[in-house]
Amino acid sequence: MSRFARAALHRLGGAVLVLWGAATLGFLALHLVPGDPVSTLLGGSVTTGSAAVRAEITREFGLDRPLFEQYLTFLGRLLGGDLGRSYQQQQPVSLIIGEQLGPTAELALTAFGLILLFALVSAVTTAGRRRAVRGAASGAELLAISTPPFWLGVLLLTLFSFHLRLFPVAGAEGWESLVLPAVTLAVPFGSLLSQVLREGLESALHEPFALTARSRGIGPLALRGRHALRHALVPAVTLGGWLVGGLLGGTVLVETVFARPGLGRVALDAVTGHDLPVVIGLILLSAAVYLVVNTVVDGLYLLIDPRLRGAGPVREVAA
Amino acid sequence: SSAGPAAPGGGTGGTPVRGGTLKYAVAVGTSCLDPHVSPGDVTAVIQRNVFDSLVYLDDKGAFHPWLAKSWQISPDARTYTFQLREGVTFHDGTAFDAAAVKANLDHVKDPRTKSLYAASLLGPYTGAEVVDPLTVRVSFAEPYVPFLQAAATPYLGIASPKSLAEKADQLCAGGANSVGTGPFRETEYVKNDHVEFKRNDAYAWAPEGAANQGAPYLDGLTIRFLPEDSVRSGALTSRQVDAAALPVSAVRTVRAAGVEVTRTQNPGVVYSLFLNSTRGALRDERVRRAVQRAVDVDALVKSIYFGEYERAWSPLSPTTPASYEAGLKDALPHDAAAAGRLLDEAGWSARDGDGYRVKDGKRLTLHWPYIASLVRDQRDTLAAGIQADLKKAGVELVRDSIDNGTYFKVYASGDYDLWDNSWVRADPAILAGFYLSANTPAAGGQNVSLSSDPELDGWLTAGAATTDPAARKANYTKAERWAVEHGTVLPLYVTANLIGRSEGVRGLVFDANAWPQFAGVWRTR
Amino acid sequence: MTSSVAPAPGAPSEPAPGPAARTVRSAGGRAARLRPGALLAALVLAVAVLACAWPGLLAPADPTAADPVAALTPPGAEHWLGTDQLGRDVYARVVHGARYSLLIGLGATALSVLAGLLVGLPAALSGRIGDQVAMRAVDVLLALPELLLALLVIAVVGPGTGNALLAIAIAATPGFARLVRGQAMVVRGSEYVRAATALGVPRTAVVLRHVLPNTLGPLTVPATLAVGTAVVSGAALSFLGLGPKAPAPEWGAMLSQGRDFLSTAWWIAVFPGAAITAVVVAITVLGRQLHRCLEGRTP
Amino acid sequence: MSPIIELEGLNVEFGHGRRRTTAVAGVSLALSAGECLALVGESGSGKSVTARTLVGLTAPGAAVRAERFLVEGRDAAAFGEREWRRVRGRTVGLVLQDALSALDPLRRVGAEVGEPLLAHRVLPKAEVPGRVEELLRDVGVPEPAGRARQYPHQLSGGLRQRALIASALAAGPRVLVADEPTTALDVTVQAQVLDLLGELKAKGTALLLISHDLAVVARLADRIAVMKDGRIVESGPAERVLGAPEHPYTRVLLAAAPDPDRPAAEAAPADPGTGRLLTARGLVKRYRTPDGGLREAVADVSFGLAPGETLGIVGESGSGKSTTAQLVMGMLAPDAGEVLLDGRPWSALPERLRRPARSAVQLVHQDPLASFDPRFTVRRILAEALAVAGVARGAARRERAVELLAQVGLGEQHLERRPHGLSGGQRQRVAIARALATGPRLLVCDEPVSALDVSVQAQVLELLARLRAELGLAMLFISHDLAVVRQVSDRVLVMKDGRAVEYGPAERVFRAPEHPYTRQLLAAVPRLPARSAA
Ligand SMILES: Nc1ncnc2c1ncn2[C@@H]1O[C@H](COP(=O)(O)OP(=O)(O)OP(=O)(O)O)[C@@H](O)[C@H]1O
Ligand SMILES: Nc1ncnc2c1ncn2[C@@H]1O[C@H](COP(=O)(O)OP(=O)(O)OP(=O)(O)O)[C@@H](O)[C@H]1O
Ligand SMILES: [Mg+2]
Ligand SMILES: [Mg+2]
After folding, report:
1. B 404-463 residues with CB below 8 A of A?
2. What average pLDDT does this structure show over B335-359?
3. D98 to chain C nearest CA, in Å?
4. What are the tens digits of pLDDT across the range D417-428?
5. What is the DSSP letter of C18?
6. What is the pLDDT of residues C126-170, one digit of tens each?
7. Of A131, A220, A267, the CB nearest to C151
């Protein structure tokens, strides 16, 4: 138990470190930005604001104070759970992120669901089958992986929305508006996952224990379901963990293409507009997600592979 | 009363029907929905539904009473007195009165508001005085004729003083925070997605002469942000929105799909390329003029904008009231030979390996910075075309992508050769912003050509000082000519709003800025 | 305890017992033979490389020369792949565009692998503390989605070909750092490194002679695959308007300009899109072929 | 009564075209209830392929032909996947080579053992767990209920092997094919597993016992078939094959097999045991177990080595042999005690100071392949060692390399080969050559021959003996195989659970073992009947 506690504590410490690092990274990054923060603050709008306005901004955001001082106050506010106000939108960052989180989460989760579904079906049904079948499947997947997601999105949009009018063009109302973006996100990642799964399945099917299992007279489905799949899950889970980050990144493009609201767009605007507080807010958010996901992934490892559970030493029972 | 806003376009036939909602799609979103702060056109278009103005300027350039029943301008054009309409209430129930007007104007001027445009519209504003509950007097340090037009813009729209006081830090967030007297109440704003409006049933103070004097016909209005051009037009053709601001690239397809497209040219400064007359090769006027002639604007505009946009000859748009210098048409047609001659004269006769002109070892290179995130309307394509044309003439055009951070440095320090801009405003006074020697970028102005000429300054100030249209026009046309003939500007095209609306959307009219007005819109069943 | 008496027969490609003779990696595990797909891929890449080195050879036309009169002409004899809204020859642009995509793809990957080595190797070889520090730092970078990280870098250094390359490289670095560290740790603990130490070979020699090369080896496949990813990322960045400067015929930029014309002039966007896919597929296929060969070589 | 399996003229080929290899050629065998046929042969001779063919799992891409192949009288050559499935586990049970990887590591032992019951619907689901317990008990697994709930990695090798056998027996097959069932096991455990198989045979199960070790099968086999290069070169009643082998190859095998009862004909050095060369005093090495506890891999081990002397260390798996070797090599730092070289500190030195002296002590690994950089050719492998020894680049180095190869019985032609292109024996020779390159006085050999076929093993032992004589090398010889140890050692150290339970002159230890554990070990060693008779 104490061991568990120690592990948990260690993890927590690591998490805090990562969050702090991420925040600092963001802070430094956008203070390294060349040029004058005030005009980034003015969002590069066609007007540049009168001198009075510029002075006001400088004062309000304390841009006249030395960098280190700004950093400290920034950290202090973070500790107080205050993410600050957006430069461009003049609103609390937490508010902005809060209201844009929904659509993105919706999109990412749906995509994730599709990915799992697609990968499992395609991998299990084609793994270790005739070369023709496998070739066709992995060929299609290869194509999907190699097509830029935004490009895929544009194509889907033109076909299904403009011409066939099956799905709404844009927005975030109702499930219909979710279909195309989710599919766009899911196709490349799903293909990747399914390839990993298939490889895992096939290498598992070559293991001696698979041979043993078959020598007991079980059928191919039982072999895949009962034996191979669990082994294939280990690499799949690893990829899955990475994939969450990929999805978040993907939303930037997909939300742009499908004109969906969401954190992806916010991120793009904030980064290109050097909206420091928002950027840092997003960085912290994705770092938090990353940490959670990693914890889950590690948990899954233990769930899948008993050998990783440190449950007692190898019993050297004299047989 | 005069024709008023019942302007052409928008299919006004038939008797209006109440009910229904309208989905309107615009291209760019906005980071702040407070017209007192944001300079964006889109902010004005959106918030026009919420905020009424003291006066209404129709697309003929005629002023009409609105929140102000009547007004007087002192002969020296320094004081404006408005008699306000009674019985007007804000969405939050509070009454509209002189105090409200004062509160708004002061709010705009207050540095803490960080106004990026509205404040400049107030010009030499010194203050407003509440003469009586329904009379307000606005004073300026010097003659300021453009004020009436300024007062007509949504940027100086009147918001509930209560909201200004209580929601000071949330005004940008729009939604329920935007409280005006307008025909619609703003119920929701989801950034990057949409703004939601409901009818203001109490509305009974439409601009004089407006087709619909009462509350809007529509129950509700939704303005959606669809930055992707293809998405926006796709949404319209697939009937997912009822009307949309269209990209030129889509007009043809959209028309084919049976959508009606109305084009209304914006007043103000057309989309033009300004030549920095204080730097490098461009100091030589011949080189500037050569650039003007080297570019085949006609061909480019035609091919890129499919003739939807009119090629511009003057920095001012034809629809700008009391100003347009029609005489400039065909003043400087494309003429590669002439351009070559000018450059040779200017001493740029030698060529280097890449075919670019050189003078004592230096290549004739022009820098044209831009902010990638602000590029729209195929303007990058247009630029590429200009680049190609200049290359033919032996001039190298380099486009440096700068970001918001470096923007100001470059802009204010005049560290560029070319700078593009356009500005919608229904008053020639805008030209002062671009050519008054005082209005340098460093000073927050738009004089990017860094022209400074006493005569020019004279015309521009005179134009702002007189109320007589003829006199104004005389001044401004001189300015326009000067600008073109001294090669400080290459007018490109007259920006226009291309608005597509599906069958059954009626009564859509446009104000002087060519911005759509939704109060009179109704839908056929 | 003794290990099994003989090397187990090499992994067969499929478990089902089939009398039908099928290619099976022999017990020794010789390199799998080149598949026709791989040949095709090699061909595609060869063309792409040619397009990078001597674009003029494949497309004499100037990719930036505007010809408004000929704008939006569909594919035909004169303009094989049609022209864009400025009348620029799409074929010429696609050919000349190869340079940017491949430059970004290869450059970014090379850079990130190098950086990965510089971070991962010391981490693996230094003590626990150094390792912890390095890996935490890597964690911080890994915590950000690659695209977000790339955007962040762009925000600092600004857009443009080189900067996009840099951004993608930085975004890909943490992954490689992890990979390198992991591999280096395996190698460090391997019998042959222990053997070298036992021989009395100096530490630096061990690192240079054994650890480094054997860490690099397994990187080749992920690196090749990363090139493909980098190409796509590069396209993505310029799709967002953060890539090479106009009028550079970068594929992603062409896509993003052409997408407004999909219903009127599909060819503007479709061909660059196809080009990206083709190149990435080719790279990936070769990467996998390489994988098979390597896997074949070391049993 | 008719045999359950009849196989005549079995041919198995792999690959096609130039790569075509014949794994099995014209093998014939028959199995009847209650009898045990042993298939013996060295690595790669085709034993496993034959075994797998009996359950229709030869291997993918294998071209299988047989003149006659009957399972319970039905023509198996015509079987489709369905028929085979009915045969597998029900008629013929297969115990795969290498029990360690033959059980699914991610599933509970019980689930593995019970699988055939479900596959063949022998029992309703509910009764399966009960039956599994019985099965485990039958194969002699203590506290079967608990074991069934554990995972394979939580069981010792012996238990795993039993579980594997239990699962093969679950559906009550009439034939059990056991492919190297004891190869991975310690002698004592091996003895127990062989007994278990004996009981099964007695119960009437037909047994095909596959092994590379004649001595192992001698206990059980009624008939023995000796395989070489895919052919059965000799087969007949066990006594005859072992007693009066006809085929030369069989004789080679018999001769090569080391004999635990044959005294070593070595002249012991002048002063055995005194630590003139190397002294180990009270060595202790602890490791943290996964649950955080401490485990003494080596507990208070002391010994000495004189120049030219060979000390053999025997013990079962996990007894601490390799760890001891590592300590002696100075690759591990002892937690207590110390190692002296030439009476001077060795284990206590920092690596920097130890490095110069390392050439004096060299290691020969159990798995030579793993000890070579996969990218290196034999030449580079030797060059690296020679560089350490200070031999100049170029011709000199090359000459020396060739010399070394000659010393270990290899030729110049091997210089440019890569290790995985060499046979097991050749690899071990290269490893030895590398060890010799630095001109060591002490060779530490950790299981140097365990991975080799008996015939090759004999050659390598031969080589080591020769080098010892020629170069006066001292050796620390580690092996789990008592016969081998006895053959090479002057003195012997018997280890158990990290402790040295017995330490003395080889002859004495083997003739008159003092410690009961030593006796147990000696008793467990499989012996060839012919000799034990002699
Ligand atoms: N799947 C396969 N593909 C190709 N060759 C194979 C395959 N399986 C076995 N072989 C070859 O068949 C021959 C016999 O292999 P087999 O495993 O039967 O030897 P063995 O007698 O079991 O050796 P060991 O004692 O090491 O297990 C070997 O040369 C091996 O390389
Ligand atoms: N690096 C390590 N970490 C933890 N435990 C270890 C480590 N190395 C060895 N052990 C444990 O120490 C004990 C002795 O290991 P060692 O390898 O010396 O045994 P061995 O006699 O060589 O066995 P084998 O005959 O299998 O090689 C074993 O129980 C093993 O689990
Ligand atoms: Mg075998
Ligand atoms: Mg060992």
Report:
1. 404-409, 411-412, 421, 423, 441, 443-444, 446
2. 93
3. 6
4. 988 888 888 999
5. -
6. 878 888 888 889 989 988 888 899 998 988 888 889 999 999 999
7. A267
Q: Do chains D and B touch (3 or more CB pairs under 8 A)?
A: no
CA distance linking residue B156 with residue B326, whole number of Å: 31
Q: How many CA within 13 A on the CB side of residue C273?
A: 22
Phi, psi of D262, rounded to the nearest 5 degrees:
-90, 120
ipTM > 0.95 for the complex: no
The rounded Å distance from CA D216 to ligand 1 centre is 21
Q: Evaluate if residue D62 carries a pLDDT over 60.
A: yes
Which pTM was predicted? Answer: 0.84
Query: What would the pLDDT profile of B45-91 be if each residue is shown by its tens digit?
Result: 999 999 999 999 988 878 999 999 999 999 888 999 999 999 999 99
Tell if the CB–CB gap between D106 and A226 is shorter than 8 Å. Answer: no
The per-residue pLDDT for D272 is 62
Tokens of residue D160, six digits: 């795993």
**Which residues partner with D495 through β-bridges?**
D315, D500
Bridge partners of residue B81, in order along the sequence: B72, B137
Q: What residues of B are in contact with residue A253 (Cβ under 8 Å)?
A: none
B403 to chain C: nearest residue by CA? C158
Over range C118-123, report the average pLDDT: 93
Which residues share a beta bridge with D400? none
Instruction: Name the residue with the closest Cα to ligand 2, atom 2.
Output: D287
SS in 3 state form for B124-175?
Answer: CEEEEEEEECCEEEEEECCCCCCHHHHHHCHHHCCECHHHHHHCHHHHHHCH
Q: Could C202 and D355 be called an inter-chain contact, meaning their C-beta atoms sit closer than 8 Å?
A: yes
- Residue B101 · residue B128 · CB < 8 Å: yes
Q: Name the token pair of D176.
A: 């059990």
Closest ligand 2 atom number to CA of residue D319: 21
**How many Cβ pairs within 8 Å bridge chains A and C?**
148
B83 CA to centre of own chain: 28
> pLDDT class for C33, splitting at 50, 70, 90?
low
Tell which of C89, C263, C268, C270 to mutate to test the B interface (max B CBs under 10 Å). Answer: C263
Contact D385 C214 (CB under 8 A): no
Q: How far apart are CA A319 and CA D109, in angstroms?
A: 15
- Hunting for tokens 């009379």 — which residue is that? B135
Which one, of D188, D261, D264, D257, lies nearest residue D505 by Cα? Answer: D264
Contact present, A38 and A52 (Cβ < 8 Å): no
Q: Is the CB of D228 under 6 A from ligand 1?
A: no
Q: CB-based contacts of D377: which residues, under 8 Å, 6+ apart? A: D415, D416, D417, D418
Q: Is the CB of D211 under 6 A from ligand 1?
A: no
Which pLDDT belongs to residue A2?
66
- Determine the residue type at C248: A
DSSP-assigned beta bridge partners for residue D232: D227
Do chains B and C touch by CB distance (3+ pairs < 8 Å)? yes
Q: Which of residues 203-232 of C touch B (CB under 8 A)?
A: none
- By CA distance, what is C8's nearest residue in A? A208
In tens, the pLDDT along D449-494 reads 888 888 888 989 999 999 988 888 999 999 988 889 988 899 999 9
- Number of neighbouring beta carbons within 10 Å of residue D508: 13
In this complex, do D291 and A227 lie within 8 Å of one another by their Cβ atoms? no
Q: Measuring CA to CA, which residue among A65, A30, A58 is closest to residue A273?
A: A30
**Phi, psi (degrees; rounded to nearest 5) at C23:** -65, 125
Q: Angle CA(B69)–CA(B71)–CA(B73) in degrees, nearest 5? A: 170
For Cα atoms B202, B206, B212, give the angle at the middle one, nearest 5 degrees.
90
Which ligand number lies closest to the CA of residue D47?
A: 1
pLDDT above 60 (res C9): no
Task: Give pLDDT, residue C1.
Answer: 36
